[in-house]
Amino acid sequence: MSSFFIKKKGPPKVFKKNENSAGSKRKNDTDTGNKIKKKLNSKHNEEISSDSETEGPSLHRKRRANVEEEFDETPQEKKLRLAKLYLGQLRDEEEKKAEEESFEMDLIAGRLQEEVLEQKGQLQRMVAKDLLPPDVSEIRLLRGHKLPVTCLVITPDDQHVFSASKDCSIIKWDVESGERLHIIAGGRKGTEDRHVGHTAHVLCMSISSDGIYLATGDMNKSIMIWEAATCKHLYKFTGHRGPVSGLSFRRGTHDLYSASHDRSIKVWNVDENAYVETLFGHQDVITGLDSGSRERCVTAGGRDRTVRVWKIAEESQLVFHGNEGSIDCIQLINEEHMITGADDGSVSLWSVNKKKPLSTVKAAHGRHGDSGLEQPYWVAAVAALQNSDTVASGSHNSKVQLWKCGQGFRHLEPLFSIPVNGFVNSLKFSSSGKFLVAGVGQEHRLGRWWRVKEAKNGLYIIPLKRQQPEQEEVNGEKNGE
């Protein structure tokens, strides 16, 4: 019976189990591994999903709790916190305001100190050491006058130049473009009654410090007042008995000073179109005049070889004696110092506190003529950069010479020369000191003693370059090494 049981049930099971045992074993192992991987992957995914779902809300709840804890304050605590914030803002604003006020006070103190020094004539900005000779290619020539230029002025904003000539015309120029913006044509002699403008050589001009009025004087003893913006004729002043050789507006006012070959100084009020007074003192024709902000003016007396300071309010004058030549031109450097040029070729530096020049450079532009008969070049024009240590002079030796005033205006040092062909009859620095304008002609503004045929009548715009601070430091280091 036992064998029958084994034969019926046992062998088929044993046979089926042993049949293809290796392949079935590999198949079962593979299936088992795949099932395990799926379970692991599913478990891993479930763990990630489960963690993210359970941790996300808990983090948000914690953050909300922290925020609630931070702002969980009583009304009194909130008022205290806001009050502290407000007081902190006020403190910051007050500190910032105090810093700004301190900065403004420093600026105001600096300006007041400069004004005091300027009034005393002790203000001297040291700019000469920074000036560099301009490139010849950068010098521009503006042509428009038929005859030699005799005088010029630059507007206070440095945008325009007015020039006048022996052809009796006046031209308004644009500095940047060099264009002629307006021309006041000159008239013929004898047409004074019907011609609006000059009918004789224009010798001098001046513009008010606010740029409103332009004044011009001529050989016909007349002074014309123009509206500078439109070149409209306003008034005509008469009263001088000789050619008008000098004009100057007092800075900050519309008071006009005029000088003449009749040896007198006249004071005018342009706003009121009125004559004020006449001053006498010079023993020869007055050849130049200038003024500053004080109620006074300075004049050059030509062949009487004196420079005079006129105190208008006190009705008095100070007399200063110069060199051997005729003092033909004068310019104020500041309220206490001035520069003059003479026909003996000298350039002199003056102080109102000294009767003699502080410094004189003889034959400042060299000499000309045959051997043994050399004569110095006449100095026909001088200019000064206001309240600085830089001045310039011009002659007919084909150059403009720039000078440096030493500390305390004790001496003059040559800086460099600028090539300009012809008679330099007028020189002016711009208010900013960025350029210099020279009025040039073939002849001297007052006569025809010489003639430079190759010269061109016009204006030379000369840019004034300054070395950069970085270059100064580099040069200083090199010098120190």
From TrEMBL:
Example of a GO MF term: U3 snoRNA binding
Xref: SUPFAM superfamilies: WD40 repeat-like
Comp. bias intervals (Basic residues): 1-15
Example of a GO biological process term: rRNA processing
Keyword presence, Repeat: yes
Locations listed in the record: Nucleus, Nucleolus
Start-end of each WD repeat: 142-183, 195-236, 237-278, 279-320, 320-360
Record gene name: RRP9
Subunit text: Interacts specifically with the U3 small nucleolar RNA (U3 snoRNA). Binds a sub-fragment of the U3 snoRNA surrounding the B/C motif (3UBC). This association with the U3BC RNA is dependent on the binding of a protein called 15.5K to the box B/C motif. The association of the protein with the U3BC RNA was found to be also dependent on a conserved RNA structure that flanks the box B/C motif. Part of the small subunit (SSU) processome, composed of more than 70 proteins and the RNA chaperone small nucleolar RNA (snoRNA) U3.
Major subcellular site: nucleus
Region (Disordered): 1-75
Protein name from the UniProt record: U3 small nucleolar RNA-interacting protein 2
Keyword match rRNA processing: yes
Role this protein plays: Component of a nucleolar small nuclear ribonucleoprotein particle (snoRNP) thought to participate in the processing and modification of pre-ribosomal RNA (pre-rRNA). Part of the small subunit (SSU) processome, first precursor of the small eukaryotic ribosomal subunit. During the assembly of the SSU processome in the nucleolus, many ribosome biogenesis factors, an RNA chaperone and ribosomal proteins associate with the nascent pre-rRNA and work in concert to generate RNA folding, modifications, rearrangements and cleavage as well as targeted degradation of pre-ribosomal RNA by the RNA exosome.
Keyword entries, A-Z: Acetylation, Isopeptide bond, Methylation, Nucleus, Phosphoprotein, Repeat, Ribonucleoprotein, RNA-binding, rRNA processing, Ubl conjugation, WD repeat
PROSITE patterns the UniProt entry points to: WD_REPEATS_1 (PS00678), WD_REPEATS_2 (PS50082), WD_REPEATS_REGION (PS50294)
InterPro entries with a match to the protein in the record: Rrp9-like, WD40/YVTN_repeat-like_dom_sf, WD40_PAC1, WD40_repeat_CS, WD40_repeat_dom_sf, WD40_rpt
Top-level taxon: Eukaryota
Gene3D superfamilies assigned: YVTN repeat-like/Quinoprotein amine dehydrogenase
Any Gene Ontology CC annotation: small-subunit processome
Pfam families: WD40
Family recorded in the similarity comment: Belongs to the WD repeat RRP9 family.
